[in-house]
Amino acid sequence: MGNIFTSAYEKTPHLTVIDNRNQPVRTIQYYRSPDTLNETDERITYMRFNARSHLTESTDPRLFALQKNDTTTKANTTWITSLIGDVLSIDSVDAGRAVALNDCAGRPAFNISTEGLIRTWQYEDASLPGRLLTITEQAPNEQARITERFIWAGNSQAETNQNLAGRCVRHFDTAGLIQTNQFALTGVALSTSRRLLAGEVDADWQTDDQQQLSQEEFFTHTLPDATGTIVAMTDAVGNQQLQTYDRTGQLKGCWLTLTDGSTQTIIAAVVYSANGQKLSEEHGNGVVTTYLYEPETQRLIGIKAERPPGHVKGALLLQDLRYEYDPVGNIIRATNNAEATRYWRNQQVVPENSYRYDSLYQLINTTGREMANAAQQTSALPDFSTFDNATYTQYTRRYTYDRAGNLTKIQHTAPASGNNYTTLLTVSDRSNRAVLDSLTENPSQVDEYFTAGGCQKQLLPGQPLTWTARGELQKVTLIARSDEADDDERYRYDASGQRILKILTQKTSGIMQTQRVIYLPGLELHSNNTEIRHVITVGFAGTTQARVLHWENTQPSGISNNQVRYSYNNLIDSSALEVDSTGELISQEEFYPYGGTAIFAARSQLEADYKTLRYSGKERDATGLYYYGHRYYQPWAGRWLSTDPQGVIDGLNLYRMCRNNPISYFDDSGGESIPLVIHFAWEGKNIPTEALSNILFIKDFNPEFEVNIWTSRPMSIHATLDKMQHSETSAYEKYLARNYAQTINIQDTGTLYADLQKNHPQAKRLEALYHREISGVYRNYAAASDITRAALMFEKGGIYMDTDVIPANDLDTLAEVIGGAEHEGFLHAKTPKGTSNAVLASIRHSKKSSEFLEAIIKSTEALESIRPQASWTTKRSLMDENALIGRLKGTMMTTGPSVLAQLKLAGNQANMIPESIFFRRNATNTPLQKDELTSEQSLSDVVFRGLVPGFDARGVWAKARRLRRDSI
């Protein structure tokens, strides 16, 4: 705990100022650094709302201060909304201005992007289901092109035999064509194929003519079990991966069968604790990884990889990472006990990194070790060293930020080696755009180095960047030549924006060489002028990744064919060690906090050259950039190359990396964070006052959280609010209603499902289930709320809570959990008695939230296959709680907590929300205090009287309480 300077954090609260409509119009933070304890900077973020309480402006502390002296300074973000609050236009000083209009059905119809790209959507006629047919795009000064075309299956016998009826079977997109040939009954695609565009032409699908496509077709086949979980996959060249799971749905083992018929064990065994934490895993090379957790907080404090006694190569400790945290969860020290302390030039070099933070928890100081021959960090890798010749030295880095969170200075010192330098960045005086000072030192010129949409136009001096109209990086020119071809790297993306093709052209020994990489499910196809290589990506296991290198021809001498490379990672998934199939070490790498290689040693230069996954487990390109899936990251500058595609979801600074805390936080795709928004769902009768009181109480302690109640009957909420505002029996309820009624948003579920249709192929099916559950004599409001819960987690992201859940005062602990580095973007509550869906949290459009949504559909269809109408009339007709398909069990099986078991989340403790930060009330508890509030009573005195910690007794619905009984 030696790195905790408590005086830096004393009297630095985070304050929210509320206006007379209970809207948060200011947030105030107090900045103090451990290096300047006598200086405290008050930082004010400004928000403005219109007459309908819709947010219209947000301004960060830096620009807010500038506005006082310069009225031309714009707010960071300005929104124009419709009368019901839909955002019609966003104007960002970082990302530019965008306009989006929907049709009368709530579907996207017309869009102008920040880069000036005009996009229109075309749908089926009103007499048909209204499915999407084409998307047309027109870039500035160009002709319009149909960039996406959707072909839907009919109802022929051949199509129904493959379960294709009514599904999209061919999707022509910006990369080519992806075709689905067969579906399982659970909705899982069994056979898909991908064809790429021939050459490097732009997609224009005026018809479904396939002349634009290359002849090569890549097939992927999957085999799901009865729950829809993939247990086998055959990639495009015929390699097959197999996975097995235990009865709780957790991964047990993984095997790979290559095209030559040889089978290799990748994951031999996994051991879990009683509550689902992964304790150890054994891999096919005999290496065992064990995990250690802090008992009080369940934070991961140890990751150890070793060859155990009896290993054919002998026992050896390969990695033993230990982590220390401060009270709020920031990592303050990371030590590798597998490494010995070294000495160089009378200096002790300890295998340890230390970290210090300011009062805003931004990383300001770090110490560690680097190669003794290291130079100033650039886009290039440091020189390679063998294990025996590796020499290390200590370094210190200091980071400086401006009042908007822009990294402006990196001071690096390594006294023993003399590697001392300072990296400076110039920030625009009108936005958060910034570049290295080698490009410009004039803040007023910075915006000239960015496109209208906020994409950087130069990487380094003499290295221009080319972007598509969609805001995707298209080309990086590494070396420009006037008399012959440039050295460059080019990229192509699919409709979702994921990279599917990379082409590197460079002059080597006087000859232009071209290297291509095609990215397919579980497989990368690498080729150049002489070599064809397959890289097979095998099942992931905790902090370990496995890749197999197979050469079709020109296998280099000094490296075996079908080499398995296990990557053992640290807490933020950076690849620290590579180990081969025999348990021998291939390479070792350590990184600076914001990325970039500090140490790199390997047993040979040849094997070192074939390492591609590095910092955060991401691929490093020839440009030196890391590819995160939605954005590219420049580690030498500690900034993203373009703005956050999710907008202000992670703050007003759209270029900031992991809130300037890259040690404790982890961005998996370049734009993901769980928003601090809490959602509730209510259907049926008027919401009980106890339930609505729970919701309003959240705003008393957590004004910074946005709170939404989603319902098809807004009057069911308004009626209870009116009742509480005029209550003559409960001063508590009256106080909450009168002070916080205007701070919550009552949202129509119709808009939610309309938005969902834009982004998920199963949206119409899910919406049909929802409408079935809220209407007719067999309606089931609890199931309807469950379905809305799944739709919210995918389409909106944020936090979902049941109305009978009461958080323990402020939600700082929950905010810490969802902001952690280790979770998979989807979190759920875990009780001693089982999985609960009472509280969920998710990144918007996360993979797991999509699986959750699809699992509800699969579970419903699976129950129907057992007995027609089982999930509908049968479920609602059988009252017996013990009936196999009764009210409770049927609902739990199809939409309730049982569905979560299909997501395979239990193996990662970071995916779990602690039950200890919530309370519950049931029929046996003391009722809410009805007396007058006195000056001695706080809201907490009233709310928590008679409550007990945790969720309901079983974490499920078996004992329905009054707040739920009407709906089940």
From TrEMBL:
InterPro entries reported in the protein's UniProt record: Nucleotide-diphossugar_trans, Rhs_assc_core, T6SS_VgrG/RHS, TcC-like_repeat, TcdA/TcdB_cat
Superkingdom per UniProt: Bacteria
GO molecular function: glycosyltransferase activity
UniProt domain GT44: residue ranges: 721-848
Descriptive protein name: Insecticidal toxin complex protein TccC
Organism: Kosakonia sacchari
Upper classification of the organism: Bacteria, Pseudomonadati, Pseudomonadota, Gammaproteobacteria, Enterobacterales
